[in-house]
Structures are given as structure tokens and as C-alpha cells.
Amino acid sequence: KRLFSVKFVFVLSVNSIRQSTKMSKEETLDGKKKRLLKGELTASLGDVKKYKPDLITRQESQTPSTEEDEALQRDPQADLQSFQASCDFLKSTIKEIKEMKKMHPDTSAEISSIRTDATIHFIHMKKLNRLAHFRCRKVRDITNEAKYKIDQCHLQLQNLLYEAMHLEKEITKCMEFKSKDEEIELVSLEEFYKKAPKTVSNPEVTKGDVHQQMLARLEWELEQRKQLAAKLTETKSEKEKITQEIQSKQDYLDTLQPKLAAILQATRPVQDYLDMPYDIIKEEHQKAQHLPLPLYVLYMQTSAYKEACDKYLKISIVGDVDAAKSLMSITFEPDEDSDSDQDEREKGDSKRRRKSSEAINLEIKNKVLKKHPLSVVLEVSSKDGAELQLTFFYLMALNIITVNVHVNQDPGVAVSTISGGDLLSPDLILDELYPNDHGNDSPNVANHFEFKRHGLQEIPSYIPVIGRPYLWCQWMGGLQFLSKDLNKEGNANRDDGDGESSFNVSRIVAVKSRHGISSANMQKTIHLLRERMKARTCLLHVLSSLERGIIPLSAESVKMFPAKINAQLSAWRRSTFQDVLSLPHADRFIKAGVIRESDLIFMAVVDRGSAKMTAHVVLTADCPRVAPLFVVDILWQTLRTALNDVHIMELEEEVNLHFRELLQGKSRDQLLANQLQRLLMCFDVYLETDTRACSLVPVEIPKEKMIPRTCRGPARSKPYKFVPELGIFTHRC
Description:
This protein is an alpha+beta fold and 733 residues long. It has helices at residues 2-25, 31-51, 53-61, 67-73, 76-103, 108-175, 189-195, 198-201, 203-206, 210-266, 268-274, 278-288, 293-308, 321-328, 338-346, 357-368, 446-453, 463-466, 471-476, 507-547, 555-558, 577-581, 587-591, 646-657, 671-688, 691-694; strands spanning 313-319, 374-381, 387-395, 400-408, 568-574, 600-608, 611-619, 629-636, 638-640, 721-723, 728-730. The longest helix has 68 residues, at 108-175.
């Protein structure tokens, strides 16, 4: 700013000199104008002096040595007013010069004079500005010095406050100090004065002095502890002696164990010779201790039934015993919330690679379908050499028992058949052992919600992995669940409480409850397994003969039929439910629920001359306990079914309803063959008594049966009933 002011003054001076030179060469203005301008300039200066007449005089009278001293000695308010007056003068001068140039362009001399006065005022303003800067710097120095003194005082105050706070903390610490004697649990005052000797308690002194009382109590506590320490040392020495004695006896027992094992090993040949496998039974019982409760009940009840009723049963335990031992201390509980567990897994260590959704779903599925490491194997043998092997598993998360089935046949006795090749398959052999028990759904209704919660499919999708959860498997293991269908036939011998509630009580009560459920069904289930195995084996033999066109009849069965039957079985093959579904005359059986999709369906073709009879034979899974069903149609001249020929309906009734006449005692193994033989016999009667065929010449179907009366009643019913004693056919009453 200072440099700019000097330059500005210098430029004004140079311009003033140039203007003066120029004016001397030009013509002078008129005298009247010069006097006017001079009078105005004098008036302007007079106004400045009039505004502050004594300011310049007083400041000029003082002649300080330096400008800094001058700045301190001068009055700031007077300088401010002088600065404002100079500013006002400069404003009025500039305005005056502007008006002179506008009114009188040739007044250069007057303008130069006015400009000189303005320059003087400008220099005066510069000086005032410089003095103001000196004054401001001085004030700043004074302010900094005052601030420094204040900071020193504030620092001293902070030090004093810190010392006061430190002293307060020390005082608080001293006030809160606790001695070690306060942590010692001393006897009560009454007990102290009662048991402590007077030399220690000194009641005359201690009762009046709390400090002496505490010292006496501490002294008595010390004496008591010394006595207890001596007693503890004596007890420890006695304990060491007893421990050494126990260890010596234990060493003796340890040396005795190998000797006993050697003795048992030496008796193995005797056990094998006498058929008393005590060692094997002992090992099995040790394994049984690690079975889950349902399999334990199944194993114990089956073993008891084997010893009491069925020596041909074989029961064993297979699996990893060590893994089962590790599970004994772990309570398996499925996740309460699969979403929260997945969040927990995803919030794991950031350095660990996160699992994909497929891996997480696979882990959840394996956890839900996890089997117990131990399983029970039951082998049911039959007289013909066939063996039914059942392996029972326990699913810990679902709380159900599943079974895998395997059939072992004697190669020398095995029968090969095309139409019945799947009769011994694991999926069909135990189907409907009890009514409506297909093993496709879990008997535990809670499993449906468990699968749904984890986003898994239903149990039929996992049957190849876990086996089939038949209802009778649950009963054998002592498990009992509410039935989905109130009308569904269940176990008729359930006489104990709900097995599921027994999980919440002790093991002893649970075992008793489960044993009651298991024992009530064990005998019936084993009997049904044997019957099923025997029935399927006999059925295989019958199907093998039928495929060759031979109806296998026993010697007793031959007596129930005429000596000669002209109809011949020309074909026997497997059929399907869809084939039966396409038959119009089979609708009545399907709608009545007699024919179901799970049934085994075969087709028999019978010929006699040009007549051809096709019979669809429906066998249930419980055949022959449930008699086979025959659906018949005859192709002779026209297609005849039960819908357009009442005699065919009578033929079906004769075969399907009156099957009990074909049973031999309690055995039903020959029922299918006997029904087929009766079907052929009735087919002969149908053809030989047909009135339309009798009118044909020549006669294609000759009458060879002894039929006293060919028809009866308004329906013209045929005599399908055969009387073996007389060898004739008659009508049913």
C-alpha cells in the first residue's frame, strides 16, 4: 500500500508539471474565471480548516523523534476525524474538477492548483494510515503480553485443581480400605465367648474395646485353624494308606482278568459243542447297551420271542459301536429355525470360504435323515430255504424306525418266472403286511412339518436311502403315533399308553411302556412275516406253472373238479392297472375300491374251439389271505362281458364269491390254482349250455358235462356248481 501511494503521488506531481507547461503555452483564461476558481479553492481550504481548526496546528506543534512515538502520542480519534475530513475534501475536489472540465474546458491552471491541494491531502492520509498501522501493532503486542500473563495464571490454576483431585482420590482410597481380617469368616460373638478360653477372650477387656475384641477373635481363629490343619494332615495320611490298599487290590483284579479271559477262551469248544454261545451273547448284550431306545426295545423283545417261541429267528446288532458311544453323551435336537442357523453359519470367520446353497441344503438333508450308527438285523428263515433279512434303522431327527429288506433264496430251490419276477423285490414283499400299510409315508405326522420347514421333499423321495417306515416297525420298537385316518385299521392289541410321551420320562419307565407296545405286536408280526414269505414262495411256483400253461393242482384239489375239462389255459402274462382301467366291465370293481393301483394284475387267456375267454386276475399284496379277483370277458361270435351278458356275471360270482369251497383246511396256498380250474370248468358249462350255440349246425361245442337242468328261473341262470359226489352240475340255491 505504501509503494502504491508513493507511485500515485509521483504520477500526480508529474501530471501537474505537464499541465503547468501546457498552460503557459496556451492562452490564459479570462480574469473573471480565474478569480472565480481561486475563490472556490480558497473556500474549500477554509472549509477544511473550519472543520478542525486546531487539529493540524496541534499535531504540527508536536515533533516526536520517531513515527512510532508519534503514533503513541497522537489521539486516534483526532486522526480518524482528520482522515475523514481529507477524504471528504478529496471527494469534493474530484467533483469540482469534474464540473470545471464540464463547464470550462480551458481551466487547466485552476485544475492544476486544485490538484496540488488534493495531493497534499492524499499525502496526509498516507501518514495517518501509517500511524494507524504502528498503533495497531503496538496494541497487538500489548494484547499478546496480557494473554501470556492470563495463560500463566490459568496453568497455575489447573495445577492446583489436579493436586486437589489427587488428594481427594487418596482420601477416598484411604476411606475405602479394607483389611484382610474383614474377609475372614469369624465365629459369632456368642460362640466366641462360649467356646474360647478366658485367657484368649478376656471378656473384661474385650467387651468394652472393639479393637481388642477383634484381636482376641483373630487369635482364637488362628488356634482353631492350626488344629484343623493338623487334623487335615492326619486324614490325608490315612487316605494315602487306603488308596495304596485299593490300588494293590485293583492290581490283583487286573491280573485276574486275563486269567478269566483265558479260561473263557478255553471253554469256547465246549460252548460250540453244547450250542451255548455265551461269549457271543455277552458281546451282543454289550452292544445293545448303546442302541437307541426304540431299537433297544426291538432287539430285547425279538430276542425274548426267539428264546421262547421261535428258535429259527436270528437277531444281531451291526454298526459302529465307537460312534454310538460318542452319541450317548450328545442329545440330538434338530434346528429350531433353519433360517437363523443359516445366518449363524454365514456370520462365521470372514477368512473361511462360505458354503454354497447346495452344500447347505445337502448338510441339512443329511442331518434330518441321519441314522443311528447301530442297526438291528432280523433274519426270518422258512422251511424251503428262503430267508427274509430285515435291517432296522433308527432316524434320530425324525424319531421313526425304517427297514431295508433283502430276500435270500436257496439256489437249488429258487424258481424263475417272468410274470412274478418282482414278487420278492424289497418294495413289494412287505407291502400291506398290515392293512393299508404301504410304508410310503411316515407314521409320525410331525415329520411332514419337519420336512416342510427345512424345504425338503416328502419321505417317498428318500426311501431308497433310509428304507421304508412301516407302521409295524414302529410297534416292534415300542413307538406309537396318532393315526392319520380314524377309520384306518391299526394295531388291535395296543394296551399301553402313548409311546411318544415316554420319551419325556426316565429310561426305566420308557422301556416298560415301549416293551408293552412291542410285546403286544411281536408274535403277530413275526407270524405275518413268515406267512408272507411262504405265500410269495408258493405263488412263485404257481406262476411258473401257469406260464407253461399248467394249472398246478394238489391231489386233494383234483377231487373237487370233473375228470375232464376241455377248456385250456393258453397264455398267462403280467398286466397293468391301466389295462384294467380301460375295461368298461371293470369299472364297478374300481369304483368299489376292490381293484387298486398297488395290486398285482395278471391276464389269463383260455381257449376252447373258437371261443376265447380273457380273465384279468387281481392279486392284492396280502394274497392269498385276500382271495384273487377275476374280471372276465368272452369272445365267441361277439364280445360278451358282464355288462351285456348276465351269465358272465354269474360266472364271475361263482369264482370270486364261493372261493371258500376251494380251501383245503387252513391253507390258502392253492387258492389261485383252484380258482383258475373252476374258471375253466365254468367256461365249459357256459359254452355247453349256450342256447345260441346249440342251434348251430354242425355243433362246435359238444355237451360233455352231466347237466340235468341247463337253465333255471327268469334270468335263465346256468348250473355252475359242481357236485363231486354225483359228478353233476346244478344251480346254487
